[in-house]
Structures are given as C-alpha cells and as structure tokens.
Design brief:
Chain A is α+β, with helices and mostly antiparallel strands. Chain A folds into two domains: 4-206, PmbA/TldD superfamily (PmbA/TldD fold); 213-446, no CATH class. Chain A is built from ten helices and 17 strands. In chain A, helix 4 packs parallel to helix 5. The longest helix of chain A is centred in the first third of the chain and has 16 residues, at 73-88. Chain B is an alpha+beta fold. Helix content of chain B is 20%, strand content 40%. Chain B has helices at residues 2-14, 70-88, 120-134, 204-209, 211-226, 242-254, 259-262, 371-376, 428-432; strands spanning 19-35, 38-56, 59-65, 104-108, 140-158, 163-181, 184-190, 197-199, 229-230, 234-240, 292-295, 316-321, 324-325, 346-347, 356-357, 362-364, 380-384, 387-392, 398-403, 406-410, 413-420, 423-427, 435-438, 445-454, 459-467, 470-477. In chain B, the strands form five sheets. In chain B, strands 9, 10, 17, 18, 19, 20, 21, 22, 23 and 26 form a ten-stranded mixed beta sheet that branches. In chain B, strands 1, 2, 3, 4, 5, 6, 7 and 8 form an eight-stranded mixed beta sheet that branches. In chain B, a hairpin with a 2-residue loop joins strand 2 and strand 3. The radius of gyration of chain B is 24 Å and the shape is globular. The chains are: A alpha+beta, B alpha+beta.
Chain lengths: 449, 481
C-alpha cells in the first residue's frame, strides 16, 4: 500500500502542471496472492504487485486517455504527454461537459489488515483443511483461494480528490468423485468471514448427494436456483442491460420498456455501492459518489446506471457507476442486489412437485437476443432432480436457453438469506442475491455427465 | 536488463531452486473506437514488469512486480521461493519438467508498417468514414468501428541457460452495424464478430481488410435482419462459414486438447475435457475429412510467436488426423505424462501471470471442396454466418452457438431468404463425425481471436484459427425441443 498522502503528493503536482484545460488521474495500486489447487495439491501459487495510473485530459471537448503501470515520475509525465497528444488529434466529443466537481462521499469500511497481509503459508493452511476433509471420502478437490489489497484514488483539476483502500478474500471449492461433483464459494472484505471448513462440507455433501447421476430429458421444469447460479444470470443481465450504453443503443432488455411491468412484482433489482453487505466502495472511477439505483422495482423497469458522458446524453446526472477511463462500456452495476424474500431453499424444495435444483451454471452467454435477455448456459457441480418436495437424486447436466424476462416473471419464492458472489468478468464487481424458485424454466439440451 | 535477469537467475540457483525462469515483458497497446462518427475511445497504455517462476523442493512458486529496481528483483525472487515452499506443504508428487533445448535467440515478428508510427488522424479518418457509410440508414442506431494495436517486447531467461528476446507486433480492426426497430436489435460485423480480425502483422493488415468496401453490405444485411423470419427449429444440413468454423474449432477442439485441462488443473473455473488420456489415438473425433493442427508458425496469424513462455520453440503438431485424435497441446510439466517433450504452448498474457497451456493457431486444414459445389449439392439446408454467442459444457461436449445471420439453401441454391437469431447445437464428436466436406485452400482464412479466457486470475490470450467453410449433416438448428 502506498497510502493517501503519498499518492496525492505524487499526482497533484502533475495535475497542477498539466497544460490541459482539465486533467484527471486515476490510480489503482495493489498486491495479492492466489493459491490454486487441483488434484488435491497446490499447483499454481502466485503473488503480484502492480499499479496503474490513467490520465484523462480535456482540451475543450477533445479528450485523450493514456495510462502506464509505473509510478516513476518520468513515466507518469510521459503518460500525461501521450494523453495530451491524443487529445490534440482527437475529434470533439459533444457529450463532454467537464470533469466532475468536488463532492462528499459516504464512509464505508472496505479494508481489513489481516486479509491484506494474509501469507502464502496461511493460504496453504486453509486449503489443507479442504484436502483433509475431502480425503475422508477419497474425493478429489480443485479451486482457488485469493487474498489481497488494493487502493484507488481519483483526482482531478476540478477539486476531486478521493482515496479508498480495500481488501478482499475469495474462495471456490470443487469436490469430485468418479461420477459427481459439488461446489461452494465465499467472498468478503475480511478473510475471517471465509469459513473454509464449512464451505468444504457443503461441496462435499453436494458431491456425495449427486453420485451416479441419472439422465433427465430437457423440457420445462420448476427450478430452485441457489445464489451462485442466480448471480451468474445477473452478471450477464448487468452486462447486456443495466448499463446506460446498451440502454441508449437500444440493445438492452430495458430499452423502450421503462415504466413497464416486465417481471413478477416480487422482483426488485438495485445497485448500491455503499451497502456493506456487498463489497462496498463509495465512489466510481470519475470520483462521483455511488448512488443507489433502482433498476427494476417490483417487476417494473425503472432505470439504468450512468457515468458522466452517458448521463449527459440522457440529460440526467451520473449515478456514480463510471468504469476506468479507457473503458468504452462506460458504466455497469458493480454492486448489484436482488432483493430478498422470506423463504429458504428447504421451503422451496418442499413446494416443488417436479423440478431441478441448480448449484451453479457454467459458460453462460447472453448475446443471443439481448433485447429479450435470452441467455444460454450449462449446469455443473451439483444438479439435482426434485420430486414431490424432496431431492431424489443427482442428474446429468443440462443446457438452459431462457429469456430472463420470462424467467423472472415466473418467480415464485426468494430466500431471506442472501449471498455475496464475486464477478468473473470484472475485478471489482459483485452480486448479492437470494436463492430463487422459478416456475417452468426452459432446459433445451443435455450432456453426457 | 538482460544482466539483471541473469543475476536473478544465478541468485535463485544459489538459493536452491531446482529450476527457475524470469520474464520481463513490456507491452504498448492502443485502442481506438468510433461510434456514430464520434470518437468513443482513444487510449494508449504502457505496461511493464517481470515475473519469476521457481521450482523448489518439487513445487511451484510465482511472484511478479511492476517495480523494476534491483532491490525489487531480489524481493520478488525471495517471495517466489517462499511461495514455492508454501506450495510444497501440500504436494503429493514432485514436479518434473521435460527436457528442452537451450536457446540464445532473438525473434522479431514480421511486419511492413509499424502501426504505432501511423498518425492517429489517419486511423480515425478510416474509422469515421466506415461508420458514416454504416449510418446511411435511419434504422442503424449504432455504427461502430475499432482498431487495436499491440507491441510486446519480452526477455526470457531460465536456469537451463536460455536467453530469448522476442518482439511481436499485432494489429486488428473491425466494424459493426446495429439495426434497431422497436425492441428488436440485429447486428452485423465485418470482417468478423467480437472486434473484427487481428493478426501478428503491422498496419498493412488494416489496409488489407478493406473496411470501406464492405460497409454498405454490412449495413444492408443488418437492416434485412429486422424483417427476417426467426430461424426455424429443425434438424438439417448446415454449411458453416469460415469465421464461425473458427469459433467451432476453438471451443470444441482447441480447449479440450489443452493437456493441463485434461489433467484436471483448470477444473474449478474453465472445467475439464472429454478428450481424456485413454482416448489418445483411439477416439474417432471426426469424419475422415477432419484434419486439425496446432501451428504456432503460421505467418501473420495471431497465435504465432518464436518461443513460448517456457522457452520452447514454436512448432506445428497434428491434433486430429483424418478424424483420429492424435495429439494434445503440452507444456514441459505435462508432456512427460505422454512420454514426450513440450510442443511449446505455454503462454502468459502478461508479466504478472504464470504461463498456462494456451492455443496457438489451431487450424482446420483445408479440404478439397468448392463452396459453390457444396451449395449446389445441398437440397435443403442453411448457410450459417458469423458468430453472435457461444457456450459449451465444462468437458467441452454439449455446445450451442448463436449466429448473426443465416441464409436458406433450397434445391442447391441460396434462395436469398435470410433468417435472424439462428442457433445450432450438438455434442462435439457426434457433430464432427457428421462433417462430409471441408472447402479448399481458396476459402481458407486465418481468424484472430483476441479474447480467449482461461486461468485464475483470468488471462486473456491472443490465438487464431485457420478455417474454411465446412458442411455437416443432421444438425439441430434453432432451439432444440
């Protein structure tokens, strides 16, 4: 960690001396380790220290962006000069009305010292607990445990100067027998929240329960989707529909539907970067405070998340969801929530006459028909057949192809308990979601295991 | 810098490393995107650092840093050793590496025009003019064109004595039109979806794409899709375009032949493989028309390099020979399982990542068919265009692809009827065994794939596939019942 004072004293003089009309610097610095394990041994064990500094400069409405990963002054000045050169050769951006001005941010706890300083040996000890538990059943295990810290600072010539240190710990566990597998995962700012043994037990139980899976014909089934499975759907929905860019381009499933009822009234999606039940973070990569945004409220399409440029296009204010200055995706919901209900997974299973419980999805793709949020993907690591309110047996994996507008219109129950699931596509995103019971979910294909 | 690398290697030897390598990588990248005539993104990034991989007491450790001082090299070397010792506390077997030749070499990829020397204005002009042609219809809501350039300088040294320098330039471009009517959005890309096409070449690659010559067709196809019928759901004969065959090869052959995946070391995220060790030289992967190679030496292809990130020389390997599965992509750690040496596929997407087995250029070798003859020989069928979506199970068996466009074939000719939202699905070996023709070298083209994901943290690799159109019978098109 470099620390707020050092970062500010490094970047503020460069911003002050910048010949641009307006200058912004975004600094991301961090260290972390990932211990990957497979075949019940740690096979990839890594540590990284890295930084990145983006300069965004404006000459009138001409914008240039350049970045480097060196904190040496010459490199920083060189990146700033490159941004200037790009801006000079740039065309005017009519949507640019200026960099954000100084604002106040909510105080959120984002850093845990123990997590930041967790050593390779400590990670190995945690992983060994999984090996020991699985060995009792002669099961094989694979997964990863990551711990680390990061600090993010945004400064600009309009007075924005914000800084936040963070830490995070994440684990995923796959337990395998000859015929089955089970999965569990955990994510927190605090490594002590990760109960490795409990998570290992969950994955082991799923592996035991799904042994010798039977084939099931594709078709419409009621599904109990555990939170990790729901999060995978939500991540794609965010990517194709909750950001202003896709909305403005007409490819979002919210385009042309604001104010319309598009899902069941039990369904409320929102983004809240200040809620510590998520990996909270108080500002975006333009230094704009994160605001709570209702995306879909009681089934009615409400809105999308914005950065400054997309907000200007819709004559509104940024919601504090800008991505890094080099991103053309502009804005995404990085602290996505699905509002909880009052049920639980046990109750959901009991209410299903003939259905499927899904632990996790694999390789979802949401580009089939984005306006209808048509997603496809496979189940994996613990898929079960439910009959007359009870789990009967494990089943071989199935492919679903389903519109999320239809699926979330068929929501019957949501669990009270929510789980935090990390994003695979961004380093900083996460999703807090309950388990969900959906009627008549469409499975369209099957595989051999 | 070379001396610093050599010193660090000597230090690690003294500290008891049984093997170590160090990679110093510097990458310059530029991304330009124009949307509806305005510049959407224009940025340049410089990234530099080094990574040290150590084998100590039979277990791996890896550490990396962006700070390029002598003290940091020493700190990171010690950290890599410490990590290897932590790994060793769980080890079951000692890591053993296959023998490899010692190289002292310098590799520079071929290019004619340095893309970073081409003025930004010249690039912007081409992209803006491209989007202006696309926008000449009120229903085109988004007209986007982009370029990407990369210049990567690597120095690799290891305890075997290798010292390899590489300089690789990559260039690419593409354009997309999104037609919108009500809540229907349809898009077409040129020359391929997901960013166009990229190659290990200079700016001459952009010039050869002839973006402007193709914008009008792309625009009109996007518009036509708005009023097109949805693709019907049926079992039929399909002729798959060269660009979609690239992704078909990528997902259903390129990934399952990665030997690390086969041996279970990528299970938790990317999954395993149905092409297990017992299937080598026994599995009838496809029909006799199917020949697939891994070839890191194809001139100008995005998966081409001089040496991999373990210092193994780039090479060509047979993967599928007349339908029979005969080879994997391997590394120095995995190849001994087969009693072989590495075939040079270990690559990392940056200095801060460990190398993994990655595709190089995985090519469907040309057959002997003419596309026109194949269409004339098809009574009822569908010609499938470029990719829109992709999904496959975690052992690479059940796949489903969505396409931007499809065309009806009836009585041996293209009727002119266009279908929107086509999907096809299958089980990998069943599907490839239905292949009865692959078009000849006249139709063979190399497609760069710049976004191949694998590993934790995710690593995005540049790979490529040389493919020509191919015909398959009894394929499920549309969403299966």
């Amino acid at each position: 960690m470099i620390g707020k004072d050092k970062i500010f004293s490094l970047l503020q003089p460069i911003i002050k001396k910048s010949p641009a009309d307006q200058t912004e610097a975004v600094l991301i610095n961090g260290s972390g380790g990932v211990s990957r394990y497979a075949n019940s041994t740690i096979h990839q064990n890594m540590f990284e220290t890295n930084s990145k500094v983006y300069f965004r400069v404006a000459l009138g409405k001409k914008i240039g962006v350049a970045s480097c990963n060196s904190l040496v002054k010459e490199s920083l000045n060189s990146a700033l000069n490159k941004a200037m050169e790009i801006a000079k050769n740039q065309k005017e951006n009519p949507l640019f009305t200026g960099l954000p001005k100084k604002q106040a941010y909510k105080k959120v706890k984002t850093y845990n010292k123990k997590t930041a300083n967790f050593t390779p040996l400590q990670r190995a000890k945690e992983i060994k607990k999984i090996f020991d538990k699985a060995a009792k059943y002669n099961f094989d295990v694979a997964g990863a445990l990551s711990t680390g810290d990061a600090e993010i600072a945004v400064l600009n010539s309009n007075g924005v100067a914000c800084y936040q240190p963070t830490s995070s710990a994440g684990i995923n566990i796959v337990v395998m027998s000859d015929t089955s597998s089970g999965y569990s995962d955990g994510l927190s700012r605090d490594v002590d929240d990760i109960d490795t043994e409990k998570l290992a037990e969950i994955a082991i139980q799923k592996c035991l329960d799904s042994k010798n899976p039977q084939g099931l014909e594709p078709g419409e089934y009621d599904v109990v989707l555990e939170p990790t499975a729901v999060a995978a759907l939500l991540e794609w929905m965010d990517y194709i529909g909750f950001g202003a860019k896709s909305f403005q381009e007409g490819t979002s499933f919210l385009s042309g539907r604001i104010g319309q009822k598009i899902m069941d009234e039990k369904v409320t999606f929102y983004d809240d970067g200040n809620d510590d039940k998520s990996l909270a973070f108080p500002f975006d990569f333009e230094g704009v405070p994160k605001q709570k945004v209702n995306l879909i409220e009681k089934g009615i399409a409400k809105g999308v998340v914005y950065d400054s440029l997309t907000a200007n296009q819709d004559h509104t204010q940024s919601t504090g969801h800008a991505l890094t200055p080099d991103s053309s995706d502009r804005a995404l919901a990085l602290n996505l929530f699905l509002k909880n209900g009052d049920s639980n997974v046990k109750k959901m299973i009991e209410s299903v006459e003939r259905g499927i419980l899904v632990t996790r999805f694999h390789y979802i793709n949401g580009l089939l028909d984005t306006n209808n949020a048509l997603l496809t993907g496979m189940t994996r690591d613990g898929t079960f057949y439910i009959e007359n309110g009870k789990i009967k047996h494990g089943i071989k994996n199935l492919r679903f192809t389903e519109s999320m507008l239809r699926a979330f219109s068929n929501v019957v129950q949501l669990s009270k308990e929510r789980k935090l699931v990390g994003s695979w596509s961004t380093d900083v995103g996460c999703i807090s979601t309950p388990a969900v019971l959906i009627k008549n979910f469409r499975f369209t294909g099957k595989t051999e295991f | 810098m070379k001396e610093q690398l050599k010193e660090t290697i000597q230090y690690l030897k003294k500290k008891g490393a049984s093997y170590a390598d160090i990679r110093r990588t510097q990458r310059l990248s530029q991304n330009i995107k124009v949307k509806n005539g305005n510049v959407e993104a224009l940025s340049q990034n410089e990234d530099a650092g080094f990574g040290i991989r150590v084998l100590h007491n039979g277990a791996w450790g890896f550490a990396a840093s962006s700070i390029l001082t002598p003290a940091e090299f020493k700190r990171i070397a010690n950290l890599a050793l410490e990590i290897a010792k932590a790994s060793a506390t769980t080890k079951k077997n000692e890591v053993v590496l296959a023998e490899n030749e010692v190289y002292k070499d310098k590799y520079i990829s071929k290019f004619r025009i340095d893309p970073f020397a081409v003025p930004v204005n010249q690039k912007l002009d081409l992209l803006i003019r491209s989007t202006e042609i696309l926008m000449k219809h009120p229903k085109i809501k988004v007209a986007e064109a982009s370029m990407d350039f990369f210049k990567t300088e690597k120095i690799f040294a290891n305890t075997d004595g290798s010292l390899i320098e590489q300089s690789i330039i990559e260039s690419g471009a593409g354009a997309m039109a999104v037609a919108v009517e009500g809540t229907d959005a349809q898009w077409r890309n040129y020359p391929n979806s997901h960013g166009g096409n990229l190659g290990t070449m200079g700016y001459e690659f952009i010039e050869e794409l002839k973006l402007l010559d193709n914008m009008e067709r792309v625009r009109e196809e996007a518009i036509a899709l708005l009023s097109a019928e949805p693709c019907p759901s049926l079992e039929t004969t399909v002729i798959i375009s060269s660009e979609q065959m690239a992704l078909q090869v990528h997902e259903s052959c390129g990934h399952p032949i990665e030997l690390d995946r086969v041996l279970g070391t990528e299970i938790s995220l990317a999954g395993g493989s149905f092409m297990t060790l017992d299937k080598l030289r026994k599995l009838r992967y496809g029909s006799s028309k199917v020949n697939i190679t891994a070839d890191a030496t194809v001139e100008g292809a995005l998966g081409t390099f001089g040496y991999d990130d373990e210092g193994v020389k780039a090479q060509r390997t047979d993967i599928i020979k007349e339908g029979l599965f005969v080879g994997y992509l391997t590394s120095r750690e995995t190849a001994p399982v087969l009693g072989q040496k590495s075939n040079g596929t270990m690559r990392a997407d940056g200095w801060n990542r460990i190398p993994l087995i990655r595709m190089t250029n995985i090519n469907l070798e040309p057959g002997d068919a003419n596309l026109e003859d194949l269409i004339a020989d098809t009574k009822d069928g569908i010609l499938l265009g470029s990719n829109k979506s992709w999904s496959i199970d975690d052992k690479r068996l059940n796949f489903q692809f969505g396409l931007e466009i499809a065309w009806e074939i009836k009585d041996g000719r293209l009727t002119g009827k266009v279908y929107k939202n086509p999907i096809y699905t299958g089980i990998t070996p069943e599907f490839w065994n239905k292949c009865d023709a692959v078009c000849n070298r006249n139709y063979w083209k190399v497609w760069g794939v710049p976004n191949c994901g694998k590993g934790e943290p995710i690593q995005t690799m540049h790979v490529a596939h040389g493919t020509s159109p191919a015909r398959f019978h009894k394929v499920q098109v549309g969403v299966s019942k």
